[in-house]
Amino acid sequence: MENLKKPFVFLCAGMSLDGKLSNYKKECSAISSDNDRKMLYDYRVIADAVMIGGNTLQLDDSGLTTKSVERQNKRVKLGKSSEPMKVSVISDANNLKTSGDFFNKGNGKRVIFTTKKTLQKKIDEIKKKAKVFILGDNWVDLKKALEILYELGVKKLMVEGGGTLIYELLKDDLIDEINLKIGDLIIGGKNTVTLCDGEGFDKLNVKKVKFVKITKKPNFLILKAKIIKN
Ligand SMILES: NC(=O)c1ccc[n+]([C@@H]2O[C@H](COP(=O)([O-])OP(=O)(O)OC[C@H]3O[C@@H](n4cnc5c(N)ncnc54)[C@H](OP(=O)(O)O)[C@@H]3O)[C@@H](O)[C@H]2O)c1
Fold first, then answer.
1. For residue 33, is it within any domain?
2. Could you tell me the residue range of the domain that residue 104 belongs to?
3. 77 C-alpha vs ligand 1 centroid, how far in Å?
4. Per-residue pLDDT for 230 more than 90?
5. How many domains does the chain have?
6. Is residue 13 part of a domain?
7. DSSP 8-state code for residue 193
8. In the structure, which protein residues have their CB atom closer than 6 angstroms to any atom of ligand 1?
9. Is the pLDDT of residue 216 over 90?
10. Does residue 18 fall inside a structural domain?
């Protein structure tokens, strides 16, 4: 871990007061509309790349852009490309459609990390729109993925979710900072995606954070925290 050359990894997500990232129908719009995702788009300005899990790619199919020319200009002033690279992790990409916004909207470069479960024919199709890396038989080695991103010039990686990808990254101690917009709503649902899903951590492996800042707005809280590394 000490020698791992990886980007600075920061999470940016919107969640309900009860920690949900979407509702039981997996509608992300249940948390916030396109109009009030300003914080998300602003954070995309400072990111070299934005990473999402395979379910988020397929369910939300976002173009992962900064959504405005002003933000694009800010990026260029910072010496970055006008839009961040888009990255997704998906173990089995055989049903992944390459006709949507992730693959076609905006001019951010695209990277897919997948496994040997994805057939060569599908890899060839995805390769027409993205760089593809096969990193494992059944599950992607995320440390390796982050090393590759670092080699591709990604020094700041923004992770947007969902709950499975966030758990996988936290498990491997790969997240450095958490930025959350906490909405004034409770969504419920025992099977609803939360900020951190997966199998969960036992007492010895629980992840600790240091709260850095909380900002109170009329309808939401903004929270910044650093992950305390063991
Ligand atoms: N509110 C927000 O800010 C926000 C942000 C992002 C997403 N969301 C919501 O989150 C929900 C999706 O969350 P989710 O937890 O179901 O899914 P997810 O984390 O987006 O994606 C999970 C999938 O990613 C792949 N994956 C993750 N880690 C992997 C690894 N190490 N190796 C290989 N594959 C890996 C797997 O793909 P396979 O299925 O191929 O195995 C896994 O099933 C959506 O409803 C979305 O709207 C909300």
1. yes
2. 8-228
3. 32
4. no
5. 1
6. yes
7. -
8. 13-15, 21-22, 26, 28, 31, 52-56, 59-60, 89-92, 139-140, 142, 160-165, 168, 193, 197
9. yes
10. yes
